[in-house]
Every structure is written in C-alpha cells, then in structure tokens.
Amino acid sequence: MHVLPLEIQHSIFLLACTDGGRTGLAISLTSRSYRDAVRPVRFHSVAVRAFPHIAGVIESYKHDIAELEASGSTLRPRVRHLLLSPESKQPIDADEPDIEEVSSTAAKDEAYIAAVVALLQLAGPTLTTLAYTAQLRFMGIGDGVCPMPQLEELTVFLNPCERRSKVLLGPPHPPASYPALRRLHIVLSWGAVVPELMGWWAEAAPDVTDVRLTNVFRRDGGSAWVETMLDEDRAKRPYPTVRRLFIEPYQKPIGGKCGNPRVQHTYFVKALKDLRRRVPGDLQFLLKGREAEQPLNRVADVERYWMDSVNGGPGGWRWPDEATVAT
Hints:
Structural class: alpha/beta
Oligomer: single chain
Number of domains: 1
Strand order of the largest sheet: 1-2-3-4-5-6-7-8
Number of strands: 8
Shape: elongated
Number of helices: 11
C-alpha cells in the first residue's frame, strides 16, 4: 500500500469508508502514513448514535481540516453520508398515543441542539444522504440555517411535541432549500398534518421524485393526501414531481381485550388498498407494511436502509419489496 500513489490510496480508502466511520478510524490508527492518507476520505460516511459523540466528531473533523491545510494540501474532508441517531425515542405505533409523550431529556437540552446544528453546518454543504432519527425539532434543517445544496436523499423522524412548529410547517427559507433532493422519507408521529407538511416539502424540495411516508395514521390526513396524488392530471397533484409513492400505515395494534383498534386498522388499510385501483399510469404506488408481535423498531429499519444506500444498494426504496408489501 505504501508504494501506491496517494490518489489510488484515496480511492481504496473511499470504498472502505462506508460503514459510518469505523473503518476510517481504524485506518487512521494503523500508522502515521495511513492516518495522513485517509484524512480526506475517512469522513465519507459518519454515523452518530449518541449526543455526547457529536462534539468529538466536530473536533476530529476540524482537526483534519487544520492538518490538511498545514500540510499544504488542497484536499478537504467531506461528509457525504450522515446518520444522526442520537438518543432518539421510537415513534409510538398506535392510533392514539398519549399526547403527553415527550422526547428524551437530551433532546430538550439546548446545548445538544446547538451541537446538532453545528455538525449539520459543517457537513451540510457536501451531504448527499442524511438520516435523522432523533425526535427533537428539525432545528437547522427546516429553517434554512444549514444549507444542503447537494442533498439527494433525506429521512427524518417527526417529533409529536413539535408537530405544529413553524420549523416543520412554515414557509421554506430559502424558497428552494433542497434543490438536489430526489428521495424523501418521513416517519410520521401522531398529530402530524400530512397535507400541510407535504405542501411545505413540495416548496422546499421541488424536484423530489420518490416519497415514502411511514406511520401514516387514520386521522393525519395521509390517506386524503394520497387521494389527491392520484389525480390523472399531474399538474393538479400537490407534489407533481413525485413518480414513486411508498405508503406504510401505522403498525397494527397488538391484540388485547378490546379488538376495536385492530378492526379500525384493518378498515384503514383496506381503504388504502382500494386507492391502488385509481393509480394513474405515470405514478407508481406501493403500500408497505407488516405485522409483528412487538412494536416495530423504525430506527433500526432506517439505520439498515441508510447503510445499504451508502454501499450502493436501494436502501428503503426497493421496488417491489416482497418482504414488506401489504397484501
């Protein structure tokens, strides 16, 4: 390896740094020459799974920038793929969860929110994929504080405590906040207003082609929004650029003494299935979902999709996915 030109080493290391940062760190600890060689590419993919780790990532990133500048190199480290999943809580997979449910203590801490924004401001200009599973308000992303001009794929979890926030539903700033975004996956929480939310995204990301909505509830306007997306006239649809639509209803309630929630879920899914008969020829519509005896781990699903996407796979956009198609 030492005899290879630096450009070839960079290409090799780039192919290796697709696991969220572990391999990049391991290479940098191998020897001084490897540490110097891997600096421009070791942040190619970064997975942050705890808030306290954010400061360390920022410090390491800035340190590598300083070292490259000091060496006279014109190269700079770039974060292309970011998984931000710090101390997040699972969305409640039930039709009407307790509205007093709050986010984790860490999510309330302004210092942690500031750290998230600081990381996104550093990485935002070069990001192509971002999976953001923390159920705190989408600070720095929805309000234009962290421009992401190259972002192509975004997954975000909504916070039930912030469902009315202007950061989520207000006018986009700047008008086209995500000019390169093509794939948008939103994991909904109870209380989200889907038509308003998707109207915001249609303005902020006007060229999205693939939309995936997970945890669509009976009363969030999701099915009504889907109906409007099935208009034969593309120009009349609320998100006219979308060509593939993935809809995953909330998880069927686990059996208990009262069967009404399960019956309501069955009728809701049937209504969504009936919509498939109206799908126009220029739109692909896939209804996804699966039953389970335990609450589904949406965070684990998103992390798996993100890793697959970083490594060149379809991630959460496989078509069709026979393992999860609602039948």
